[in-house]
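Deviations from the work plan: none for this task. Representative record:
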Amino acid sequence: MKYLFLIIAAVLILASVITHATLPDARSSVPVIYWVTDPNPAREEQIRLFHAWLKKHNHPRIELRLDTANNDTSKKIIQGVSGVGGDCMDIGSGGGMRYFNSVGLLTDVTPWAKDMGFDPSHTYPAIKTEVTDAGHQYMFPCNCYDHLYWVNKATFRKMGQPLPPMKWDLETFERLGKAYVAAANPPGERRENFFANGAPLDVVRRGWGVSVFNETLTRCTLDDHRYVKALKLIRKWTYDDHLCPTAAEVQSFSTASGYGGSTLQLFNSGNYAMFMMGRYALIQLRKFGALELAVSWPPTGGMPNCSTGTRAAGIYAGSKHPELAKYFLAYLASEDYNMQIVRDADSQPPNPKYTKTAEYLRPKDYPNEWGCHEVFEDAMWQIAIGPEYSPFIVPDVVNRSDGEAVEAYMSGVTSAEEAARQAADRINAEIDRSLEEDPSLQPKYDELLAKQKKIDDLKARGEKIPLDLVDNHFLRRYYEWARMAR
Amino acid sequence: MMTPKDRRRLRTGLGFLAPNILGFLAFTLIPLGFSLVLAFTNWDLRHHNMFKQEHLKFIGVESFVRLFHEPNFYKYLGNTVFLMMGIPLSIAASLIAALLLSNDLGVGRKRTYWTVACGSLLVAACVMLGLLGAGASAMTLLIGGVICLLLVGGTFGGATTYRTVFYIPHFTSGVATFILWKKLYAHETGPVNTFLAGPLERLTETLRGVPAAHLTAGMWVWLVLALLLLFLGLRRLRLMWVEGELSWWLAAPAAVGLLVPVIASLFWAPTFEGKFLLVVGATLVLLFQLIRGLTSARLPSLASSGSGSAAALAALYLVGEFVALGFAILAYRLPGMAEAGLQPPEWLTHYHWAKPAMMIMGLWAAMGSNNMLLYLAGLSNIPPELYEAADIDGASRHQRFWNVTWPQLAPTTFFIVVMSVIGGLQGGFEIARTMTRGGPAGSTTTLAYFIYTEGFETGRLGYASAVAWTLFAMVFIATLINWKFGSKHVND
């Protein structure tokens, strides 16, 4: 028996040696770096272009390999703190970046970015807060997006309804929406046709000047009558007017496959006359043929705005080849990569100078899209505002706390007033807990509180607010728009 | 004194055991011990990892104290306990499945030919309907076809076919079945609600034809039934106390437990008259039983006598009272609901329906689980002489089950109860993550899911460990209670 045991042990050792010898790193003659990203088929082409770009610019030879199996946030965190993270990691938002950075997983790329041409000035101003934290850059965008309403012109025509305007207010949205759902759904039958896939709660809230946080990002300010009003309006649109489907109605649609889930299929089939998504929806929409498309901004009752974000790449702090990984970020700002994003319609290219090209504005194979691309581009400059983040709370906790409160209201468990209060209370309790757990944050917090007091005094006196006091980038924009800034 | 040969044999033995022991140490025991230490520290991924080596502080029981002050903890514990209320049903379902599958199917007898003929006819009918383009009812056809195929297969393959089919939920990937159930539960297009829609519509029409006062009268019937259950529960406690089976200090909390539904109903009973009836009725019942108890001669008892029986009795009657009160509210609201039209539930997207939806799914999974296999094994181990003796005594099928099968399965049931309670307290993570993400509004977030979010979404590993060890303590206490009171009945 013991000989059998020894033979098995020997075979296992031999198998390990062979496995190790045949690993990609061991077989490659050049350094290998890994890119942890989503399993999009376009990534293969992007890697091919990267290798060609390195060669064209006489950069060091590197082999970039895909790792699509470990793109889940928990996996990246666990692998990262265990010292085995991918060299380049896709991160889906500025919130994710802040969390990763707070764990220490990201390399500060600020020193390289300016020299290698991938500092924030090479992307949209609205994205700056997504790739930087406390003045330091940790990522560069792989793409940038703003969420607007895609409009299926044929669906509106079929229902005999007027097309929505590009810019509209809440009253117009409601009026056109009610007329549409009345025309599109025969009385007494199951509602299958909706004006839009969803109502933009955050856009409505922000339009009325309500931020998640106060000016200095020290307290949550969702317990606000304007947020309550926004919640009630969205519930009314969903449950009373049926402009948008409820969660149960969404689940009832049997189709749910492909990029973007069921939404795009339902837009194609005419169940949704409009849906809110970035330009990346075209990846899937192009497969449906030449849909007659238009684009509208989300409606607001005040300051026009839309949400924006980025899928960006950062360099793992434990990478064995950070000096090589930085070339990947430089590549993301290059013409080769950006034009590939333009052609694939994978949102806006990270570098906006490539949106002035005919390939972006008038793709020759897709004349049905002409007129849409510039709307996305203009919105990025005019109304797109990234989420606001507080340094005193993990962004995911904010989303979870607010999300649960909104769900409780939408399910009829709480009132809108309670939901707003609960969201604010939970977020503020979490801020207090962070300060308690990490006393090193306290001096900065106290300093900001003193600044907040100044702002509150100015507001109480009805005076304009100096923008240099305001850290919350959304409120800076809002105060400028509302002429409350000096 | 060990001889060289003994030492050599010991080394060989240890060599064989080493991989297992090392694996257990590296992947179970050491991490377990480590997490216990972690629970008393402030370990936060944001401050303590290979990139950020801030000083790790020992904070004692601070995390545990914080946990017990955290309102969400009680909410998530409540969710976990609520889902565990499906355990008795799951055990019953697996026992029924095992009893059915242990039956002699009579393969080869005359009825086999009838089953084959009927099954084949049904399969052919489904195929024909499919070919004729009955696409709108594709799901019905599919389900019908599968049932028919099972009938035919079972006829030829006997119990093995059915046992295999029943066991499928256990070896099918969890995530796949969760996604399937998500589709089954779809509000307007899911087969569950499609099935419910017709009967509910007919029920609505029937109810609309009944005067509202008659429907509302049902509320009084259910309220009286709740009071009757309270009466019976208190009476049983009194008798146990009088006969010395129960000490007074255990009878008192059990009696309070029985009054909990009445107290709770004061907050949600539909009418003032209903609350009045409950309060007056419960007071009279309590006074009556107290007077009867105190005026009776009683036998002495030990302080700990009857603790398990009292707990089981209180739990049983408490659930019964809650159910009766629930039906009372339903009866009160029925006219309004009928007027609006009875609708199938929004299973996974409604705050109050999401948990029952999960329980139903759990019930389905339990039917074909390891519990069923354990019961099957238990049934095959019952000596046939016992059944023969029961037959000679003229026992009915019902009596055979309660007097032979059930007592003989007691050790199996005890093991299943222990394991189910442990699994129930630890469970809910995969379902919540796949089907609801803990929502809507945290209604399906269990303690296991809470540990995940605290550990990996906020990085508080120390706190997450404290939650995990609190959960362990609960599991341990529940298991101790099971052993202390359950094993007694098993041995009896």
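Residues 99 and 394 of chain A are 6 Å apart (CA to CA).
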